[in-house]
Amino acid sequence: MEYVVGIFGGAVAGSEAAWHLAQRGIRSIVFEQFALPYGKIENGLPKWHIKLRDKQEEKINEKLNHPLISYMPLFRLGREALFEEIRHEWNLSAILLATGAWADRQLDLPGLSQPGEDQLIYQNALVQYFNQKHDPKYSGPRFEIKDGAAIIGGGLASIDTAKIIMIELVEAALLRKGIKTDAISIERQGVDGILAQYNLTLQELGLQGATLFFRRRKVDMALSPELVNPTTEEIEKNEKLRLRILENVQSKFLFKVEELRSPARVIMENNSLAGVIFTPNTIVNSKALPSGEPEKIFYTRQIISAIGSEPEPIAGLPFENGKFRVVDKETGELAGCDRVFVLGNAVTGRGNIRESQMHGKQVAGKVSESLLALKSSDYESIFDASNEIADQQVNRIFTKLSNSVPLNEVQTEVLSEKVRRHHQKIGYSGYESWIKLHLPQRLEQMLGLNGE
Fold this sequence. Notes:
Layout: E1 4-8, H1 12-23, E2 27-31, H2 40-43, H3 50-64, E3 69-72, H4 83-89, E4 94-97, E5 103-104, E6 120-122, H5 123-132, E7 150-152, H6 156-176, H7 183-197, E8 211-213, H8 232-253, E9 256-258, E10 261-269, E11 272-284, E12 287-290, E13 296-299, E14 303-305, E15 309-310, E16 319-320, E17 323-324, E18 326-328, E19 333-334, E20 340-342, H9 345-348, H10 353-364, H11 376-383, H12 386-402, H13 409-426, H14 431-438, H15 443-447
Parallel strand pairs: 1-2, 1-4, 2-3, 4-20, 6-14, 7-8, 7-14, 8-9
Antiparallel strand pairs: 5-15, 10-11, 11-12, 11-13, 16-17, 18-19
């Protein structure tokens, strides 16, 4: 007799939870909607983080390639099975939802009638396109990046988005002049560096560049950790640090930032986007409120929304305000669902990688909410927190499991047969061979570039 835990999502939180369960001798079935288990490491971390991406994906491989872990790729809830079917017919000892936050938070902009794909682009789709477009096998969304784009955001996602937009614009403009370069080289040298190399300016390339609009002040951007009970001197020092970091990124990638601006509505001409009307804000008691000043018009043909992501709702599960409803934030136990737990972005409702891995520390009250990673080394320190998160979560779940009835031999065999049938259906014969078959072609390999 044994326990078998079902885990939906094989990336950071899911793989760590499965591995920690395996260390306790508990079998798990990891359901993954995509072919690869890497989640936002593959499609949320911009592709210039080569060594970091490879290192983190190898860590996931080492964890999921375990005899007590059954990997179930291309298994999407609502397509292969309904959640209620999994919950009531598979006889799993417990279910963990590590599905992450893949649904872009919708940008409410009145007046945007019949928006074309290139008039309003959401950050998740943009990064997927940027990371994978060079691969001949890529079949996802494609976009035409337009000069003068308005980026709506203010967090880590919007900084990465601004860099991506500027890299795309400059690479295309240089190519029109007969100069062939690539995204990785531009990121390494910076837009300013690559232009200096060819003795060019944005103006000489005919580019205006992108503008990032933030509803709060520049000093409020999450570019350094929040301070606990800071003095006035510490606040001023931290604000200066944030401005210096922002100025450094802007000077290297040449995008502009407009603070204290909230998008109100759009201007349409012949059913095409012509501009965005912004409401000026002021900060009152730490809140961004309309200042009463005249509205500002920004003429643009493209809006990039980087205002955050949230988990996708699952039919039959309690979901409100962009996240699953839990009854206990420490265990992540789902309201009204016995032995169903959520973790990572499914609990926080936040869409960046940091939130997925820092959730356990948030619960313990040890984490700063405003850490922004701009370098691979910063990201790596964030990834290293995943062990603590999974360990905390699994310890709590393990306590619950030890008080429940384990599966008998018949129930265990039924589960094994379901796994075998799915593997046969998709042609899965083993973790290592499956990963090797489905790993996308890397841009640095195509270009013969070294890693970071």
